[in-house]
Design brief:
about 15% strand; five-stranded parallel beta sheet
Amino acid sequence: MARILVVDDEEGVRSFLGEALELDGHEVERAADGSGAWMRLCQRSFDVLLTDLRMPEVDGMTLLARVREAIPETEVIVLTAHGSVSTAVDAMRKGAYDFLEKPVGSPAELRLVVRRALERRELKSRVEVATRGQTGPLQLTYRDPTMAAVVEALDKVAKTDATVLLVGESGTGKEVVARALHDRSERRDGPFVAVNCAALSDTLLESELFGHEKGAFTGAHARRRGRLELAEGGTFFLDEIGELKPSLQAKLLRALEQREFERVGGTRTLRVDTRWVAATNRDLASMMARGVFREDLYHRVAVFPIRLPPLRERRGDIGPLADALLSRIGGELGKTEMSLGDAARAQLEAGDWPGNVRQLRNALERAVILSDSPVVEPSHLWTDVVIDQAKAEEEQPRTLEAIERRAIEAALDAVGGNRKQAASRLGIGE
């Protein structure tokens, strides 16, 4: 379903076009002239504008110019009288998607043009999502029986549009699970858009979530759509929701409840149809007790909570995860044939991994860099020695001399005492 504004000064034409589109499942509003249409466009968002070119006062070309300047994501289809095709072609040069000659041949012709306009709008949104860094994480990989309950819950809730809250320690793969939920849902063909609330300042986060208008704040040199708007028809993943400040919690609550919001510095109400998934490693219950997290927002996001167990509770997943991570890291670093040796695999599976999947990935990435062969061996996992020593000495003064000594000792241990190789690893003279 799309939101469509039909503009024509002939009541019969408005009725015909509106009814044909409503029967196709769209939400349609009608305006009798360009002035009335612009008022509606300033108040709320529309996916498609269908406008006559010849109208009193504000004509279709003027309306087209305003929309292209202020609301470029809205696709415009122009209506032109028979024999005025040159005018319609001029409108397309100025940004209209397509044109229809009046009288429109049939409802089927109208619906086809509108459907193609909506497809182009979706394609442009996907391109914008891709250019703003929305790359896919590792695919959901599991073997341990502990994860069976998680996957079963995902499969059940994926069939609905219920809001899901993923709870777990940092690095347990919450974004991976959110994407798996998206891929299992009816919205799988729509976009998957993520925002990390802990990665941005309050001002930048509000703009990233809801978008902003030109001049809304210092540095806002152009209008920008928010991630929530780009998630139309798909899944919106709000990571680290426990980091949201109270002022943003209130605005987010309204977007969740009413599916409406305004861009920063804007007055136009935008509506969004998206599936919400939130995640946190914080104890939201204690935060509510302290008054730093809104109880009403919690109940909106925790409709269907799912706990993700840490790696130490699902050791059977460490091996498969390491294989998947190694394959991906090897491809990124130009070492596509990398594999785990048996001893290295046993060492990884014996670890506690307090940093979970993120720590495992870091260890494997360092190992791939260090390895001169296609097989990762225990000696390539020397960075774990640094971690272990740091834990053992965490109560000691953290002077520069002590840090340097630990790094040198760890490098020497990793290469069996060979000073030349240790110096090479550390990038210093022998």
